[in-house]
UniProtKB/TrEMBL annotation:
It comes from the Bacteria. Substrate binds at D283, R307, G329, R377. Mg(2+) binds at T265. Catalyzes the specific phosphorylation of the 3-hydroxyl group of shikimic acid using ATP as a cosubstrate. PROSITE patterns: SHIKIMATE_KINASE. Transmembrane segments: none annotated. Residues 6-80 form the Shikimate dehydrogenase substrate binding N-terminal domain. GO terms for molecular function: ATP binding; magnesium ion binding; NADP binding; shikimate 3-dehydrogenase (NADP+) activity; shikimate kinase activity. Monomer. GO terms for biological process: amino acid biosynthetic process; aromatic amino acid family biosynthetic process; chorismate biosynthetic process; shikimate metabolic process. Its EC number is 2.7.1.71. This is Shikimate kinase. The gene is aroK. It catalyses: shikimate + ATP = 3-phosphoshikimate + ADP + H(+).
Length: 396
């Protein structure tokens, strides 16, 4: 069986092994390596080829014996293949991937002013695709270039913004390089990051109803073309959507919200068991961290203190992938929690008739009353959720 892998500097965020298992029957490894070990790994007889990611898409070019026309044009390599004599040929499948992302998400760049955040290997590919798609202009914003983050105000009229940097990528979720409010003509936002599923940049675009797309479509599309090179076969483009849906289904968290006592923990445990996933209860995390019950935290330290700890524990849970997460009933009281939940989650509202809610050990249900709490929270539950489950059966 042929053996392939992904070469990069830090790869804890990667879904590549998972994706390639869906495109072909070959071994695929995640290969973190420093620059000193790059050439030895690349020439290892244990492997027939690799995908290449940050920070080696440009550096690997000098180690290839031959370059495809597209990689020469773009000046970036993200796939290498070795023949029986060990000759290494470099390819660029990111071009196909980014082009697919734009088409699939209906982001039209023709005639528009575009800026690219970042100047690495992925930036070269994006620049080429945008030019080929007849963008009016393409400007690269980098830390030390002529166009940088100190004078980015000169480009606040940009219509398309593409992030090619790792800013906002797992495990440093929630960060962004720009404030979209500054870009008054913005008509499209793309972030090549795929973990988390929705970066802060993408969530900011969604909040402003700006057409946008994260990097998962590009990741899967370029992997499809890489897999074709690895296996020497043609794979139907229709498989891209199938694999993308499967990967998102496997990696996105299932996050349960709803009134206190609605059965989020009970249902969450059952869902996790059926789905073969881990289960996390945010209230349990809080109690373990504080060494006391939620009720006691409210009594001794107050609600503001509790909400601070709740957001902290929620962030720790939601940065992970593929979990079922039960949240507290008041999670929707803080707007900051919305992005934390939405970055990597499908949100389900657990609905239960008010007269069936369990109130024991739930401070606000007891002190405020479930009717008042529900009136205060129902609109937020609806807005935050993607689906709802009616949980009016007898709880056991």
């Amino acid at each position: 069986m042929s053996r392939f892998g992904l070469i990069g500097g830090s790869l804890s965020h990667s879904y590549s092994k998972q994706i390639h298992s869906k495109f072909g029957n070959y071994e695929y490894d995640i290969c973190e390596v420093d620059e000193e070990g790059l050439e030895d790994l690349l020439r290892s007889e244990d492997y027939s080829g690799f995908n290449i990611t940050i920070p080696y898409k440009e550096k690997v070019m000098a180690l290839c014996d031959e370059l495809s026309d597209d990689s020469k044009k773009i000046q970036s390599v993200n796939t290498v293949l070795k023949d029986e004599n060990g000759k290494i040929t470099g390819y660029n499948t990111d071009y196909f991937g980014f082009r697919y992302l734009l088409t699939h998400n209906k982001i039209d760049v023709a005639g528009k002013k575009c800026i690219i955040l970042g100047s690495g290997g992925a930036s070269h590919t994006v620049r080429t695709v945008l030019a080929d798609r007849e963008a009016a202009s393409v400007t690269v914003i980098s830390r030390s270039g002529k166009d940088n983050y100190e004078n980015i105000s000169e480009h606040f009229d940009a219509e398309i913004i593409v992030n090619t940097t790792p800013v906002g990528m797992f495990p440093y979720n929630g960060k962004t390089l720009v404030n979209l409010d500054d870009f008054h003509d913005c008509a499209g936002v793309v972030d090549l990051i795929y973990n988390p599923d929705k970066t802060k940049l993408i969530l900011d675009a969604m909040a402003r109803s700006i057409p946008c797309a994260g990097g998962i479509d590009m990741l899967v599309a370029q992997a499809k073309e890489s897999s074709e090179l690895f296996q020497g076969i043609k794979i139907d483009d229709g498989d891209i959507d199938i694999v993308t849906d499967e990967v998102r289904s496997e990696t996105l968290n299932t996050i349960l919200i709803g009134m206190p006592g609605a059965g989020k923990t009970m249902l969450g445990k059952k869902m996790a068991e059926r789905m073969g996933r881990g289960f996390v209860d945010v209230d349990d995390m809080i109690e373990e961290s504080e060494g006391m019950s939620v009720e006691k935290i409210f009594d001794e330290k107050g609600e503001t203190y509790f909400r601070n700890i709740e957001s902290e524990m929620l962030e720790k849970a939601c940065i992970r992938n593929g979990l079922v997460i039960a949240t507290g009933g008041g999670i929707i009281k803080r707007k900051v929690n919305y992005n934390i939940i939405k970055q990597n989650g499908v949100v389900i509202w657990i609905k239960r008739d008010l007269d069936k809610l369990v109130t024991d050990g739930r401070p606000l249900s007891t002190s405020t009353g479930v009717e008042k709490l529900y009136e205060e929270r129902k609109d937020a539950y609806k807005y935050w959720s993607d689906f709802f489950i009616d949980n009016n059966q007898e709880m056991k």
